[in-house]
UniProtKB/TrEMBL annotation:
SUPFAM superfamilies to which the protein is assigned, alphabetical: Outer arm dynein light chain 1
Listed Basic and acidic residues bias regions: 293-308, 318-344
Chief subcellular location: other
InterPro entries tied to this protein: Cilia_flagella_integrity, Leu-rich_rpt, Leu-rich_rpt_4, LRR_dom_sf
Official protein name in the record: Dynein assembly factor 1, axonemal homolog
PANTHER family the UniProt entry points to: LEUCINE-RICH REPEAT-CONTAINING PROTEIN 46, PROTEIN PHOSPHATASE 1 REGULATORY SUBUNIT SDS22-RELATED
Subcellular location: Cell projection, Cilium
Key words of the record: Cell projection, Cilium, Leucine-rich repeat, Repeat
Species for this entry: Durusdinium trenchii
PROSITE patterns: LRR
Entry annotated with the keyword Transferase: no
Length: 344
């Protein structure tokens, strides 16, 4: 066989080997895609599926449903939230990235504190009557058009509801917030266009401390957005991307009173107050040092004229009392050691 024939035979062998590898790769990829496709929505949230979930991780879950305080059901493709009657001890439910179109099946979860249902297909806030202790609710990336059904949740502290469809109907879509106890509200990237939402809703929320409002059309319509909100929401501690400090609030209130000139004057007063406070602190510190030095000089001069020494002084100071106690401890440690030597 010539060299050219040998090369052609070798090349054919290589091509066959590569063809086999390509076929195996395509078969494996097709099988994986089929498994992924069947994994989304292929099952329902049945008791059997929940039991499989428990059995899949014994380090995470107890066999008895009522003993579990957390449940992770993300990325299951389930269409209905149900079959949680036995999960009476549940405190946190992680159900993001499914296909839930409504909130249901939580009537037995009376101890639930945190509910995460972001990235689903929920259109209405409902079904939370059985969760009186709910503290944190996350409904990001759904299709909710109106905030409602939360007034009975007297422990609700945090509502995160970004990227929904809230605000098309103006203030009416958010006025229910006034009846809630929400302290942290995140409504970023919604459709809130009416600037009256500030006086009609946010100002009337007595417990509001943290507000995320950016990404809504109303942010461009509220005059002097950050200063305006800071000045009227007196309890607000954090707005959008940074905290609201007391000096920021004073400057905002001054701006509302007299414009930019009044704000500059107020900032100058704030700076003068800070400098004066710094000087007072430095003076107090220096006075403390001077007093300590003066007291030491007085003690030394009195000791020079005193007939007693440190060892014979009848007035026992705290430092001397501590030294005496240390000596007693050392003496107590030496005595057993001597006794052991005698016994030997």
């Amino acid at each position: 066989m010539s060299a050219s024939d040998l090369d052609r035979a070798l090349h054919a062998t290589v091509l066959k080997r590569e063809a086999v590898k390509e076929a195996e790769y395509r078969a494996a990829r097709q099988k994986h895609e089929e498994e992924v496709r069947l994994g989304f929505g292929a099952t329902d949230m049945t008791k059997e599926e929940l039991k499989k979930l428990i059995d899949s991780d014994r380090r995470m879950y107890y066999r008895s449903e009522e003993l579990n305080d957390k449940l992770f059901i993300q990325y299951k493709g389930w269409k209905e939230l149900k079959n949680l009657e036995g999960w009476t001890g549940l405190r946190a439910l992680y159900g993001e990235c499914n296909a839930f179109d409504r909130i249901s099946g939580l009537s037995s979860c009376r101890n639930l504190r945190s509910l995460f249902l972001q990235e689903n297909c929920i259109k209405k806030i409902e079904g939370l009557e059985g969760c009186p202790l709910l503290w944190n609710l996350n409904l990001n990336n759904n299709f909710i058009e109106r905030i409602e059904g939360l007034s009975h949740l007297r422990s609700l502290n945090t509502l995160t509801i970004q990227r929904n469809k809230i605000g098309f109907s103006g203030v009416d879509d958010l006025v229910h917030l006034v009846e809630t106890t929400i302290s942290t509200l995140d409504v970023q990237d919604n459709k809130i266009w009416d600037p009256d939402v500030l006086p009609e809703v946010f100002v009337r929320m007595g417990d509001l401390r943290v507000l995320y409002l950016k990404g809504n059309p109303c942010a461009k319509k509220i005059p002097n957005y950050r200063k305006g909100i800071t000045a009227v929401c007196h309890n607000l501690k954090y707005l959008d991307d940074r905290p609201v400090f007391p000096e920021d609030r004073r400057a905002a209130e001054a701006f509302n009173r007299g414009g930019l000139e009044e704000e500059r004057a107020e900032r100058r007063r704030i700076k003068e107050e800070e400098n004066a406070q710094h000087e007072r602190n430095m003076k107090a510190f220096q006075d403390m040092i001077d007093n300590v030095r003066r007291e030491k000089r007085e003690r030394d001069s009195m000791r020079d004229e005193d007939k007693y020494t440190n060892a014979s002084d009848p007035v026992i100071s705290q430092e001397r009392r501590m030294q005496q106690q240390v000596e007693k401890w050392k003496q107590a440690e030496r005595v057993p050691a001597r006794e052991g030597l005698v016994d030997d």
